[in-house]
Design brief:
Blueprint: H1 16-37, H2 42-52, H3 58-67, H4 73-85, E1 89-92, E2 95-98, H5 100-121, H6 126-144
Antiparallel strand pairs: 1-2
Helix pairs in contact: 1-5, 2-3, 2-4, 2-5, 3-4
Length: 145
């Protein structure tokens, strides 16, 4: 069944797949710019979050990446090494932890991510946002059933 929707802003009518990819791309670009301002990339951000979330060893960081479906133990190790060299992650007796600089950088990036979410949802009523999420969740269920 094809569902058509009139667009009030006179944009050409586009299928949901176009909008999903378009919004995803815009989100990726905006967040990548935030990361670039800190001089890091997405793997570094994910390593920071894994360590902050309790991953205490390189193997645990790699396991966190596996849950995120991010490929490449080499990529994980390179990002971890870069963060250690930058003094954002400390290794002490084989255990990882964020340094004060790493925690501060992670907080700056988390603020940037929150600001991006606020920008994304500006002008959208909370119930409309919830409906959108519920709809996308059901679409995912439909495609995985």
């Amino acid at each position: 069944m094809l569902i058509t929707v009139e667009c009030a802003d006179h944009q050409p009518q586009r299928p949901i797949t176009w909008w999903l990819k378009h919004v995803d791309g815009l989100l990726e670009v905006a967040f990548d710019r935030s990361l670039e301002r800190e001089g890091i990339g997405r793997p570094h951000w994910q390593v920071l979050n894994a360590v902050a979330g309790g991953a205490a060893t390189g193997a645990e960081v790699e396991q966190a990446f596996a849950r995120l479906r991010v490929d490449g133990a080499v990529q994980v190790r390179a990002a971890l090494t870069a963060l250690v060299n930058r003094d954002w992650v400390r290794v002490s007796q084989g255990r990882l932890s964020l340094t004060p600089d790493g925690a501060a950088a992670r907080e700056r990036l988390a603020r940037a991510a929150r600001a991006q979410r606020e920008r994304l949802t500006h002008g959208i009523e909370p119930e409309h946002y919830r409906t959108t999420i519920d709809t996308l969740r059901q679409m995912a269920r439909n495609l995985t059933a």
